[in-house]
Write the structure tokens for this entry.
Amino acid sequence: MEQAPAVTIEYNEYGRTLKASAEGGERLDVFLAAISGETRSFIRRMIDDGDASVNGREETKAGAKLKKGDEVELFISLPESTELKAENIPISIVYEDKDIAVIDKPKGMVVHPAPGNETGTLVNAIMYAIKDLSGIGGEMRPGIVHRIDKLTSGLIVIAKNDAAHRSLAAQMKTHEAGRLYLALVNGNIKEDCGTVDAPIGRHKTDRKRMAVRPDGRNAVTHYYVLERLGNHTLIAAKLETGRTHQIRVHMAHIKHPVAGDSVYGPERNQLGLDGQALHAARLTLKHPSTQEAMTFCAPIPDWFIAALKKAGHDPALDIDKLIDGICLNG
């Protein structure tokens, strides 16, 4: 483009939204790079995260061709901290070799630094505990291949070199690698298993939330009932896609929000939970070097067990055996 178009910028507490009209014929990523001054690689990440829209509809194709008069928007969150330090924070390393490390992340720990959580993150902890980390994720996300929410506990794999990072990222994209979650949800799910197939995009007014939207990105969640507790149901959930907050959004969509989830469910919960009852209990992957199929398990944390007991869980039931007994092929 010979001249960057006029840009309107709206600010809020989470970041800024850039708005501009297209001349026509431009690629979306090229156009957004021109109006924002950011690199195309940065812009592609923003598009992939669902932060770009055309005429009010989320657009996730960087090469999408714009038409004359198209109204284009880009949301850019507040910049992350520029200082990153190793911190001696105890973490549970489930497995480690020269290529990967598997961590059982505790509830309440943020994966990587962000505004309001500049220290005390998993990245700060692994920089101290693990000396070799891949750099593909950027200087603020060394070794980070995927994330889980602050108030979700469980397994996350760390790449210790770039080759391992590329392998794991490809497995995550094709779902050859993935996680099985335990979730305690509100209400009594009558079906023994089910699938939620509903597209997810950013909430139209609250950029920190996600929502089921007809113009969102494809999202599929399979769930399996493990135990019915009257007012609550314990399920195992497997993701066919990996959208932000996917299980939380999908379970709320079918009127069974995750217990304790004040963002997508009721503000008050009956079990005294501080955040959603969601735990990444199992992780499967193919080892980047040996190609060995590997499965890792994380014990159910005490806070989750306490919520289960309060909901009426039968302690005689072996939840691990219940998980082994379900079909995980979707």
Notes: Residues 136 and 162 are 6 Å apart (CA to CA). The helical segments are 28-36, 40-48, 122-129, 162-174, 246-253, 302-311, 319-324. The chain is about 20% helix and 30% strand. The chain has a mean pLDDT of 88.
